[in-house]
Amino acid sequence: MKVFKRILFCFGCLGMFLIAGVLSCAIRAKYRCVPELKSTLAYSYADLVSDYSFVEYNQADSQRGELSMLNYLEVLRKIQSEKIHYPQNKLHFECGLTYLRLYRIELAENKTAEAASYMTSAQEEFSALGWNKEALSADNLAKRLFSREASENKHFNNMQVAPVASSERTPRPLEVNP
Question: Which listed site, 8, 9, 21, 58, has its alpha carbon 20 to 30 Å from 134?
Answer without folding.
Answer: 58
